[in-house]
Amino acid sequence: MSWLGKVIGGAFGFLMGGPLGAILGTAAGHQYDRGRRGPERLEPRLELGDQRRVQMAFFTATFSVMGHLAKADGSVSPAEIDAAKAVMDRFELSSDLRRAAIQLFTEGKKQGFPLNEAIEQFRAECHHRYPLVRLFVEILLEMAYADGPLRFSEERLLLQICDRLHLSRLDFYALKARVDAEHRLAHTGHDRARRRPTPTPVRRSALDDAYALLGIRSSATDAEIKAAYRRMIGQHHPDKLLASGAPEERVKSATAKTQQIRKAYELIIENRTVS
Q: Mind listing the domains of the chain with CATH numbers?
């Protein structure tokens, strides 16, 4: 059973308290009212910075704020619902955790959702775990791009969230460029050069996206490209994610992220070889 599975069968929001604890408690209570398995035991309240408490805060904030962001333009699109389900798939959630995530998403859509308070608590719970904050914002950006280009209302809300997280505008726009590039790269359908008898240059926009994903310019040297690639791979290394407090389910899904990074790196190297 995963870390949150124990919480779902245990104390729910009592372990954490604050707005995030209330949101998680409401979501869990909704399942209990529908005949789901309720709390079996109460554990001592976890201290600030405790790994399990950090993971619980990440799970609660991620899915509830995703719901809030999806409703930012007035309605939740089918593409945004699919994006939320995709995150659940990447986290490899069990059926119980999936139901909890769906209910958290629903809580986030409700009028009066305490966004600022929830974000403030999430920042405090993270306890300077910057990789976890960056991962949180990346997931929100993926949600925002699910149904097309970033809307003004979505970007304004994301900037508000980043301000509360003490994430600089420079960092936000760097993450935004990478997620935007990932989204476009995922739809290029690029075939690797080894599948073809003769390599051919890829279209310019896909190549630009590959550079953006690695956070470098097309004028970068080979050494700079390799350094950027290693840095990005390092940021998504399972051991580093675990140390930052990321849930086990997210660590398992890091493979998909590293594959995107490798694909971008290979695309750049192939094009330089062809050129």
A: 3-167 (no CATH), 193-274 (1.10.287)
